[in-house]
Inverse folding.
């Protein structure tokens, strides 16, 4: 594990003074015993806020993934036990409660954002971050700088966003908003999942505001979503126990009454773009970030709550969004999406990918990934997701790559055909690098009598057959109604 990324142990910076605290004296940087899932655990207090339902403390639990950080009420903190107090020199306040510190942090962040527009930053936990691991170059071994501070123009909107209407051009906003146990196949699944639980895929740089999840709950259609990470919704939203996001236009409300009024008026029932794929299970819509700027920014704000290292909030223009939905009588419900740069010099076919949390681990990620490769096949290009991948991104891609390579090799075998890295790459629209890494990780490449060979162990074929019989859903490529869009260089919008 890279110590730069994973600082799962709280308070590992030397001896600390210990004595009792009260709800009023407990401060940021303290380590207290806090109840989590019925057990008392050491937790560092990262932030404190007064909400309508009382004082809340934001806790980072020892040895838990930071996705599991949470706001806890006073009653879950054990004040009978001594609290470890922050070292005045070493443990600076970490959440910007200190006004001066917060301003300085904001300045730093705005400097950091002056990078290539639309570039997201991603880091990963899991053994993939270990040097020499076959997947190590897919992930970051360095701590990452983080998402921007709360954007100014959003703060000023007092909890409302304009709804994106129909399929009209949505260029309403100013152009100057800031950019803001070992298994046979070589992977130890249990160990990785354990690392996912206990690792931290987000930078643990204590000076960053975005370390703290700012929204507790999101009402989204019939679901309550519990965010994992910071997202720059208006600062006033952080006082709320829950916010509401319209599941169709994705506009956001802190206040239930305004949200109810909005729902009566909102006419959108599907993402504002062209439906380019439909089967009896899902649809895909293609949405241009420039034509539907507000909708796409809202999508980014929403997805940031579940994506750790994304800085694409404002400069959505250079991207296309491929949004997967499921239909009910109410409309087309957002299941997941991926974004793709209109012109990507690095040849990435996916910038960011997300399955909404209520739909995760049901096979939708596979469909999104397959769709991205089907588009690459139509374009006649090889594609790969933007690196570094997140922990869950890496697991999902690795699974997709492995399954598809094994299936293809079985086909080659049945036809008694020879295969090469290049032929696999062309058939699957995967880069040769991704093919090679997958073969290496699966230990399928051998050097025999002066030749590199790909071997497909019988056990692997059987395991794949079993998994395949369970996998019900695939994208039917013949149903995709899509031609690669052409953009004019100046506008990066549709060339017509
Ligand atoms: N634990 C273990 N394995 C997992 C997990 C997990 N939590 N999630 C996915 N996988 C692996 C499994 O092998 C799974 O297959 P299985 O269920 O048959 O075992 C395979 O990935 C595919 O799973 P799906 O159910 O198809 O994937 P899902 O719909 O959950 O979507 C995704 C995967 C998109 C990565 C989702 O976890 C997500 O949105 N995460 C948050 C955002 C994120 O990290 N996105 C990727 C960033 S990298 C980038 O954008 C390029
Ligand atoms: Zn709406």
């Amino acid at each position: 594990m890279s110590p730069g990324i994973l600082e799962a142990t709280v308070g590992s910076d030397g001896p600390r003074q210990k004595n009792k605290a009260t709800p009023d004296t407990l401060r940021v940087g303290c380590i207290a015993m806090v109840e989590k899932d019925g057990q008392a655990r050491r937790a560092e207090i990262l932030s404190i806020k007064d909400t309508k339902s009382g004082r809340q403390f934001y806790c980072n639990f020892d040895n838990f993934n930071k996705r599991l950080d949470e706001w806890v009420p006073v009653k879950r903190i054990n004040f009978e036990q001594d609290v470890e107090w922050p070292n005045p020199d070493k443990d600076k306040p970490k959440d910007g409660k200190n006004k001066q510190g917060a301003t300085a942090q904001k300045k730093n962040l705005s400097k950091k954002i002056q990078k290539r527009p639309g570039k997201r930053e991603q880091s990963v936990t899991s053994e993939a971050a270990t040097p020499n691991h076959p997947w190590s170059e897919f992930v970051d071994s360095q701590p990452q700088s983080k998402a921007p501070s709360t954007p100014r123009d959003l703060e000023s909107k007092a909890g409302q966003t304009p709804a994106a209407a129909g399929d009209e051009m949505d260029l309403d906003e100013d152009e100057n908003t800031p950019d803001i146990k070992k298994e046979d196949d070589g992977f130890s699944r249990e160990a990785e999942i354990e690392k996912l639980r206990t690792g931290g895929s987000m930078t643990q740089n204590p000076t960053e505001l975005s370390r703290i999840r700012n929204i507790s709950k999101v009402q989204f259609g019939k679901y309550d979503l519990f965010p994992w990470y910071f997202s720059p919704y208006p600062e006033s939203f952080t006082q709320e126990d829950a916010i509401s996001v319209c599941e169709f236009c994705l506009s956001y409300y802190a206040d239930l009454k305004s949200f109810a009024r909005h729902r009566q008026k909102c006419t959108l029932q599907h993402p504002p773009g062209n439906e380019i794929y439909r089967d009896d299970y899902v649809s895909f819509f293609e949405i241009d970030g420039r034509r539907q700027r507000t909708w796409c920014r809202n999508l980014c704000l929403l997805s940031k709550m579940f994506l750790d290292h994304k800085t694409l909030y404002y400069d959505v223009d250079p991207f296309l969004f491929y949004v997967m939905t499921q239909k009910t009588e109410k409309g087309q419900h957002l299941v997941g999406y991926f974004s793709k740069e209109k012109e990507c010099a690095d040849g990435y076919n996916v910038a960011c990918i997300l399955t909404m949390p209520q739909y995760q681990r049901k096979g939708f990620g596979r469909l999104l990934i397959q769709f991205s490769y089907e588009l690459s096949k139509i374009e006649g290009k090889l594609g790969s997701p933007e690196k570094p991948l997140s922990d869950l991104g890496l697991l999902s891609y690795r699974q997709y790559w492995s399954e598809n390579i094994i299936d293809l090799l079985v086909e080659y075998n049945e036809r008694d055909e020879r295969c090469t890295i290049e032929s696999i790459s062309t058939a699957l629209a995967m880069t040769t690098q991704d093919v090679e890494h997958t073969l290496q990780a699966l230990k399928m490449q051998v050097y025999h009598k002066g030749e590199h060979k790909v071997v497909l162990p019988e056990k692997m074929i059987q395991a794949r057959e079993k998994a395949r019989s369970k996998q019900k859903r695939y994208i039917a490529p013949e149903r995709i109604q899509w031609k690669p869009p052409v953009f004019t260089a100046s506008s990066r919008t549709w060339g017509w």
In short: The longest strand covers residues 39-51. The two ends are 50 Å apart (CA to CA). DSSP finds ten helices and 19 strands in the chain.
